[in-house]
């Protein structure tokens, strides 16, 4: 067998790169990998067992929860609790952050912000879904960690990643030293290094946005979309439009092929739809580490000072040249 490297082997090998190399962050990443495999197992057989459809409950976002939203949430919290390296989980599916109140965990140094299942409206139709996570180091030194420990800027993240449950299942993560992707080999049940040192192309020709909201977009976005659609051979326009409706899958595709993903403010989501702590920040960290950029249209996502757990924001993310041009349209027209 030639040169297979599992996620576990890779994490141990890279442990010395971490600023506080005591093995805790390595174990935390391993715990997330384990929960991801369990969620993958359920997502894969979702049509066969009674786990599809709505749970009949509404989360703090005002969205109907799917059964798999709740399942994934429970699995990640369970893995992070038994792993013992995480003192708080802040999740899309719970109004308040979840303190891990066991004797080992309450003094743990890390906080995980997580979107357990991204794109949950796509589950019933067998389209790729994902998980997104952001890892922060707690600031307080003793007692139970607090909300202030969670409300840190994106620049403070020590690691971030996503899992995509697609035609194959992958985990992609960064600890601030580049981005690496691992594909799950179901025959051995391991994530194996398949995409070392991922880089987003500087320029691209794919734009991803829910264009149905066009009338409600800011003027800068409307003008930028028209720019994407104009013919100009020198700049490869018109661009191609691709929108899956699972942010993880849309950004993953653009990371590999080059492109821009946008979820701007709209009339129904005046602050934007995606959540800063567990959607925008981790994706911004990954894309910046891969050589791209992430902006709210005017400012760098990772410089935004969070004020609330479920804070939302607009996002423009992907290939550097494309995002810079979109920002220019925002500056000129919005
Ligand atoms: P989630 O399923 O975690 O609530 O996230 C939904 C997000 C994201 O995955 C996706 O890109 C976006 O919502 C789609 O929104 P629209 O249906 O408004 O386009
Ligand atoms: Mn949701
Ligand atoms: Mn999401
Ligand atoms: Mn979700």
UniProtKB/TrEMBL annotation:
Pathway: Carbohydrate biosynthesis; Calvin cycle
Keyword Magnesium applies: yes
Cofactor section: Mg(2+)
Catalysed reactions, as listed in the record: beta-D-fructose 1,6-bisphosphate + H2O = beta-D-fructose 6-phosphate + phosphate
Record-listed E.C. numbers: 3.1.3.11
Source species, domain of life: Bacteria
Coiled-coil segments: none
One Gene Ontology cellular component annotation held by this UniProt entry: cytosol
Annotated substrate binding sites: 118-121, 210, 243, 273
Domain (Fructose-1-6-bisphosphatase class I N-terminal) ranges: 5-196
Domain Fructose-1-6-bisphosphatase class 1 C-terminal intervals: 200-330
Cofactor note: Binds 2 magnesium ions per subunit.
Residues given in the record as Mg(2+) 1 binding sites: 92, 115, 117
Positions with a binding annotation for Mg(2+) 2: 115, 118, 279
Gene Ontology biological process terms, A to Z: fructose 1,6-bisphosphate metabolic process; fructose 6-phosphate metabolic process; fructose metabolic process; gluconeogenesis; sucrose biosynthetic process
A molecular-function term among this protein's GO annotations: magnesium ion binding
Subcellular location: Cytoplasm
InterPro entries found in the cross-reference section: FBPase_C_dom, FBPase_class-1, FBPase_N, FBPtase, Fructose_bisphosphatase_AS
Keywords: Carbohydrate metabolism, Cytoplasm, Hydrolase, Magnesium, Metal-binding
Subunit structure: Homotetramer.
Family label: Belongs to the FBPase class 1 family.
HAMAP family: FBPase_class1
Protein name: Fructose-1,6-bisphosphatase class 1
Recorded name of the encoding gene: fbp
């Amino acid at each position: 067998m030639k040169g297979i490297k599992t996620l576990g082997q890779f994490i141990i090998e890279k442990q010395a790169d971490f600023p506080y190399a005591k093995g805790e962050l390595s174990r935390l990443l391993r715990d997330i990998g384990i929960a991801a495999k369990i969620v993958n197992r359920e997502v894969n057989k979702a049509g066969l067992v009674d786990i599809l459809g709505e749970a009949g409950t509404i989360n703090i976002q005002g969205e109907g929860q799917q059964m798999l939203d709740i399942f994934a949430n429970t699995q990640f919290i369970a893995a992070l609790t038994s792993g013992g390296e995480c003192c708080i989980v802040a999740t899309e599916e719970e109004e308040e952050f979840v303190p891990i109140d066991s004797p080992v965990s309450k003094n743990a140094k890390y906080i995980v912000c997580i979107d357990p299942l991204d794109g949950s409206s796509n589950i019933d139709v067998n389209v790729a879904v994902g998980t997104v996570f952001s890892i922060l180091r707690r600031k307080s030194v003793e007692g139970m960690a607090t909300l202030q420990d969670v409300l840190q800027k994106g620049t403070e993240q020590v690691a971030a990643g996503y899992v995509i449950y697609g035609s194959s299942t992958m985990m992609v993560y960064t600890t601030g030293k580049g981005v690496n992707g691992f594909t799950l080999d179901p025959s051995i049940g391991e994530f194996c290094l398949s995409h070392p040192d991922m880089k987003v192309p500087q320029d691209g020709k794919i734009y991803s946005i829910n264009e149905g909201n066009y009338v409600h977009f800011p003027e800068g976005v409307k003008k930028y979309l028209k720019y994407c659609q104009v013919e100009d051979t020198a700049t490869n326009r018109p661009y191609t439009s691709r929108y899956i409706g699972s942010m993880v899958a849309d950004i993953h595709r653009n990371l590999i092929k080059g492109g821009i993903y946008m979820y701007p403010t709209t009339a129904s989501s005046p602050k934007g739809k995606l959540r800063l702590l567990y959607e925008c920040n981790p994706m911004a960290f990954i894309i910046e580490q891969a050589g791209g950029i992430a902006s709210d249209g005017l400012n760098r996502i990772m410089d935004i000072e969070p004020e609330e757990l479920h804070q939302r924001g607009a996002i423009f993310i992907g290939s550097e040249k494309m995002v810079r041009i979109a920002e220019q349209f925002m500056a000129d027209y919005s």
